Amino acid sequence: MNYSKQCFYVFAILAVSFLNIQCKSEKKKEVIETNTEIATNQVTIEKSDYGITSEGEKVEKYILKNASGIEIDIITYGGIITALKTPNKDGVSQDIVLGYNSLEEYTNSNPYFGALIGRYGNRIAKGKFKLNGTEYTLATNDGENHLHGGLKGFDKVVWKASEEKNDASASLKLSYLSKDMEEGYPGNLDVTVTYTLDNDNKLNVVYEATTDKTTVVNLTQHSYFNLSGDSSTSILDQELKINADTYIPVNETLIPNGELATVENTPFDFTTMKVIGKDIEADNDQLRKGLGFDHCWVLNEQNTGVRYAATAYDPSSGRVLEIYTDEPGIQFYSGNFLDGTLPSKNGGTYAQRSGFCLETQHYPDSPNQKDFPSTVLEPGKKYESTTSFIFSVKK
Ligand code: BGC
Known about the structure:
Elements: H1 3-40, E1 44-52, E2 58-65, E3 71-75, E4 81-87, E5 93-95, H2 103-108, E6 115-117, E7 123-124, E8 128-131, E9 134-137, E10 146-147, E11 160-165, E12 169-178, E13 189-198, E14 202-211, E15 215-216, E16 220-222, E17 239-242, E18 246-248, E19 261-262, E20 274-275, H3 285-290, E21 294-298, E22 307-313, E23 319-325, E24 329-333, E25 357-361, E26 376-377, E27 383-393
Antiparallel strand pairs: 1-2, 2-3, 3-4, 4-5, 6-16, 7-10, 8-9, 11-12, 12-13, 13-14, 14-27, 15-26, 17-20, 17-22, 18-19, 18-21, 21-24, 22-23, 23-27, 24-25
The structure holds beta-D-glucopyranose.
């Protein structure tokens, strides 16, 4: 073989092996791409740094995303849902919860936007209650009453986070140890709240707690929704249905008088879909006391496990939010105390009634109300509560 022939064969062999390698790597790429396709149909969870509190505690943000474009951002400070994006009827994704853009704003002044609430969601009269003959005095942070866990409730602590994932859902598990006598409550309370997003557009929230001394517990989630996706608009045109034939009237400091009242023929009747603004300005003593709706509804079908609680609907965007819970009550708060002073996420401020809360819970002031379902947790027993938020659109 002469030299030029030799060169030709070497070149040909090299070219064939090069093509072969290329081919294999194309195949590999294909496999990876197919895997990515499978991966994007799964619910994802991603973690990033969010900030550092003034006490030097690191705060992280977790983003859960599902295949139909629902995105939920949760920070470990207060377990706060800082953003919740869902598509409207035209497929446009928008944020449907009130909140802020920075940790500093959340730590400065937060009317519980998006937060986990504990040890006791809602009010305890004069911050006092008795357990087995011992009187306990809690921090008072709402006039003479105790509200949402006190001066430093679960909305203002940094939770420990861990992630869980399977094919159908992704979860963020948040844990916090509330020490004996924190905010005046007895017992070391070990709390876990698990947020799970699935591909059926459900956000499931499971609350669990155990204690080493008899105590009271009533945990909830305090997101302010504006289903339009534009918090500069009012929630008064949005519609609501609550699965409740009775509600709990309150005194001037929003403490129950112990009675349950029928909703029939009152502005509190949401047994069928009703525009929130329809009766909110009615001449009604309870509405005057709450500055609007700020009451606990007694859900029907008590003690039947998780069942239907409420539906909110925004005709302009088509967004529907359904709530299911095993709790006996739901506090519907129409954002009456928002007064246009707090900065919104998109440069404006939050006006009165720019968001509503639907807080599943036991009734307000239960530790002092003998006829209300008990909120007492004993050592050796487990507190467990489940609430689901289901998102959809109606065209
Ligand atoms: C209460 C309101 C309170 C608000 C604070 C709601 O859960 O029902 O009375 O003002 O929380 O943001």
